[in-house]
Design a protein that fits this description.
With 183 residues, the protein is α/β, with parallel strands linked by helices. The relative contact order is 0.24. It is built from 8 helices and 5 strands. A 5-stranded parallel β-sheet has the order 2-3-1-4-5, with helices on one face.
Length: 183
C-alpha cells in the first residue's frame, strides 16, 4: 500500500492537489475536512475527540483493506510536537501492512492563500469556511501562532517533496507528485 501525506499551511491547496492526484492514480483521498465538517454539522461545534476517533477507525480499516493507497491532507504545524507525533501514529497504523510513505509539503505566501481561501471548490467541500472574514482571520492568526512551513533540512523522511505551488496549477502539482514518486 502507498500513503501520501500532503502537508502544509491553511488554504495552500492540499485538498485540491489531493483531488487532482486521486484522478491520476489509484489512490483514495481522505482530506481532513471529511471528518471535520460532519462533526461540526452534528455537534454544532468542532469536537476534536470525535474527529480523532472517526479518523482512527478510517485509518485502521483502510490500512487492512486491499486498496492501492491513500492521500491524507493535514495542516502541519512543524513547531508542534503533537503534529509530529500524529504523523508517527498514522505510520504505526499503516506500517504492519508494508505501506510505503510519501510526504509532500506545499508552500505559498499568505496573500495567495487568502485568495485561495475563497475558491468555489474550497467552500463547497468545507462549509465551515463559508464565513470568509472569520476564515481569513483564523488563517492569519494561525500564521502568527504556528510555523506551518518547514525549515530547510528539517523533514527527516526519505520520500519527501517540497513544492512552492504559488504559480502552479493543482494539475501540475499532482503530475509532479505522481511522476516523482512513481505513483
Amino acid at each position: 500500500m502507498k500513503f501520501v501525506f500532503i502537508l502544509g499551511d491553511a488554504a495552500v491547496g492540499k485538498m485540491t492537489v489531493g483531488q487532482e492526484l486521486m484522478k491520476r492514480t489509484k489512490l483514495r483521498l481522505f482530506h481532513n475536512h471529511m471528518t471535520i465538517e460532519p462533526v461540526i454539522e452534528i455537534f454544532g461545534k468542532f469536537d476534536s475527540k470525535t474527529i480523532s476517533e472517526i479518523r482512527e477507525v478510517i485509518f485502521k480499516n483502510f490500512a487492512a483493506s486491499d486498496n492501492y493507497g491513500m492521500i491524507f491532507t493535514m495542516m502541519m504545524a512543524f513547531d508542534q510536537q503533537s503534529d509530529w507525533d500524529y504523523l508517527e501514529h498514522i505510520q504505526e497504523v499503516f506500517s504492519p501492512y508494508g505501506t510505503e510513505f510519501f510526504y509532500v509539503e506545499l508552500i505559498a505566501p499568505q496573500e495567495i492563500r487568502l485568495q485561495r481561501n475563497e475558491t468555489e471548490n474550497r467552500l463547497k467541500n468545507k462549509p465551515s469556511k463559508k464565513n470568509i472574514a472569520e476564515s481569513n482571520q483564523r488563517l492569519i492568526n494561525d500564521d502568527k501562532n504556528y510555523r506551518c512551513v518547514s525549515y530547510e533540512g528539517e523533514i527527516p523522511f526519505d520520500n519527501y517533496l517540497r513544492i512552492d505551488n504559488s504559480d502552479k496549477s493543482p494539475d501540475e502539482v499532482a503530475l509532479l507528485i505522481k511522476e516523482t514518486f512513481k505513483l
